[in-house]
Write a structure and sequence with these properties.
This protein is of the alpha+beta class and 622 residues long. Helices cover 32% and strands 17% of the residues. The longest helix is centred in the C-terminal third of the chain and has 35 residues.
Length: 622
């Protein structure tokens, strides 16, 4: 009963007594029209935003809200309202929602999570063939493909956190030049593409860094795609044309910038994110990553993105990182040859991987290698002079009483998301008793992890499956390259494992935890590093896992509330820990997944981990 009529080369589809439901492009436009996708950022405190049946404010309001974090496809935009179709998240499958409420964003534009793809996979071009056995440049060791003309530049001064939020906000309004190369830094992707920056600025930046030969230049930015993602701020994937074609130069590059103060939305996180960066909430994440790519990567014997430019102003925390882009496969690709990058894994979605242990053996091999190279002084002359984040034991310990909150959550609030073994009284008795002891000994446990310098060294505590690109070597063994080095620094290896095991499945760790420690130690020793006792490494890993699990129990406290957005009523509607209502909110997915899998691990290996606590206690004379 609908109608279809043409309007300026666009077919408009209209249902009876309804506004236009969809625009269907005609001719070439049908192949190139960009889908407009929005993410819901409002309604955090209300469980989502209101949905109406029609565009008018007099239209009926749906009984169910559209969840915060949901992604929707725009069918029509009229008078500040969007007629949508639900892509991800929960809520009505279609309806009308406001873009803003007064001056507060309810929706923000975002990357299309599922752009249309042809039904059939495209045939691979000659460039994808690997029959010759030659390793493509993006999978060769970073030490082989680093720019040969990198110019000397001094390391950054030590990170100085802003003393308070007011001062952090003041500094963030400044527009200053980078400390390393003395060039202005674009503050947004839009400014990067403006005439003030663009190709001319890239030429200055690349020539200053020595990543582009002086007799060559960037002719133009051919295309640029801006998108949110992760927690570091806006990102841009852009393609270049050089004046002189050069096969040694990448034409597709990746740039990321810090979040803007006061800007809401996916990828920019919250207005406080830039302030948190300036106060060092997560360490010197920008300084660490820039300096890793510039000084350390040229000595790394496995793939990492190639450095093109990076700089930072310590006072304003303006920053930019530009590297080669990871060559991800096209969406929908099913079969992969040797030396072809596999599809990316989303954070805390290891359940989508087949044999996920293979991915962690690949990661631990790389992490052990980088730690051994630092120990043997093979990561370049600047390694010792870089002011890495000062990781160390925490003097604060963990909060008391959290085991009771956790037990209530498992037994009374969300028993249906937990395996039967976790719900059993026998396990909960043992687990809560162990966690109460760990809580009381938390400061001593953390201090022990840093007490022996042989088990403290350079590491990457964010070496998760979502921060790596995986491929199979010619021998079929899974290998990987690693990116997102903002959490790199000197730390207890056990602390590194906690960060890098954040996404892994409890069942996988229960079977492979000790073997993964052996994998790390083998790669570490293969560099010629001073021998370590792998049994001590296993003990420290287990202590760290117990401590980290204990710390995470606190996240269940708000779940006990009747009023919190993720309180008791919320969990009645959740079917599993990977329910779409959890997956659609990044912070919730991250926290719930880590807690769930750590507790599952304990349910399967409680005796072994408890024995480790007892052994450590005897050593310490407790």
């Amino acid at each position: 009963g609908g109608s279809l009529r043409a309007r300026g080369g666009i077919h408009v589809f209209r249902l009876p007594r309804r506004p236009p439901c969809a625009w269907l492009p005609e001719g070439p436009a049908a192949m190139s029209a960009e889908r407009k996708v929005w993410e819901v950022v409002g309604g955090v405190d209300k469980g989502g935003i209101l949905v109406r049946d029609g565009q008018s404010l007099k239209s009926a309001v749906s009984a169910e809200r559209l969840s915060t974090g949901a992604k929707i496809l725009e069918l029509e935009e009229l008078a500040g309202r969007v007629h949508y179709e639900l892509l991800t998240g929960t809520g009505p499958k279609d309806g009308w929602v406001n873009i803003k409420l007064t001056d507060k964003d309810l929706l923000v534009r975002c990357e299309d999570p599922s752009p249309p793809e042809p039904e059939q996979e495209e045939e691979e071009g000659p460039e994808e063939e690997t029959g010759s056995g030659e390793v493509p440049r993006h999978l060769r060791p970073a030490c082989e493909v680093a720019a040969p003309g990198l110019k000397p530049v001094s390391v950054l001064a030590p990170f100085q956190p802003a003393p308070n939020m007011k001062e952090a906000k003041r500094r963030a309004t400044l527009r200053l030049k980078g400390d390393m190369y003395g060039l202005p830094i674009p503050s947004t992707p839009q400014e990067f593409e403006s005439p003030e920056y663009g190709a001319a600025w890239l030429n200055r930046a690349f020539h200053a860094a020595g990543t582009l030969p002086e007799d060559n230049s960037v002719k133009r930015i051919v295309s640029a795609k801006n998108f949110p993602g992760g927690g570091s701020g806006p990102k841009t994937l852009f393609t270049l044309e050089y004046e002189k074609p050069d096969e040694s130069l990448d034409i597709t590059l990746f740039m990321k910038l810090p979040a803007e103060v006061g800007v809401m939305g996916p990828g920019t996180s919250t207005p406080a994110q830039r302030v948190q960066d300036m106060q060092g909430a997560f360490g010197d994440i920008w300084g660490a990553e820039i300096q890793f790519y510039r000084y350390i990567a040229p000595h790394v014997p496995f793939p990492v993105p190639r450095f093109y430019f990076g700089d930072l102003n310590r006072e304003s925390q303006e920053a930019v990182i530009i590297t080669s882009a990871v060559e991800w496969p096209k969406s929908g690709k099913k079969s992969f040859k040797a030396l072809q990058v596999l599809p990316p894994c989303e954070k805390c979605e290891d359940y989508t991987l087949t044999n996920s242990q293979d991915y962690y053996f690949a990661l631990l091999k790389r992490l052990g290698t980088i730690s051994g190279l630092e120990r043997t002084g093979k990561l370049g002359p600047e390694m010792a002079s870089i002011h890495w984040s000062p990781y160390g034991p925490s003097p604060r310990g963990t909060a008391e009483g959290m085991t009771a909150c956790f037990r209530t959550f498992v037994e009374d609030i969300a028993p249906h998301i937990w395996p039967q073994k976790v719900r059993s009284k026998d396990f909960l008795d043992k687990f809560t008793q162990a966690m109460d002891i760990v809580q009381k000994a938390a400061v001593a446990l953390d201090g022990y992890l840093y007490s022996n310098p042989l088990y403290v060294g350079f590491g990457h505590q964010n070496g998760n499956t979502d921060n790596a690109y995986f491929y199979r070597g010619a021998d079929g063994v899974l290998e990987c390259g690693i990116f997102d080095w903002g959490s790199a620094g000197r730390m207890a290896y056990a602390q590194e494992f906690m960060g890098s095991f954040g996404s892994c499945l409890g069942e996988m760790l229960a079977e492979y935890d000790d073997r993964l420690m052996h994998c790390f130690a083998d790669a570490y020793h293969a560099t010629g590093a001073e021998p370590m006792d792998v049994n001590e490494l296993i003990l420290q890993y287990r202590l760290a896992m117990c401590l980290n699990t204990c710390q995470m129990l606190a996240m269940t406290m708000p779940y006990n509330s009747e009023k919190h957005p993720q309180g008791r009523p919320f969990w009645k509607t959740v079917k599993s820990y990977k329910d779409e209502k959890i997956r659609s909110v990044f912070a919730l997915k991250f926290g719930v997944s880590m807690l769930y899998n750590k507790v599952v691990l304990m349910s399967l290996r409680m005796d072994a981990y408890w024995d480790t606590i007892v052994e450590w206690g005897k050593r310490m004379g407790f």
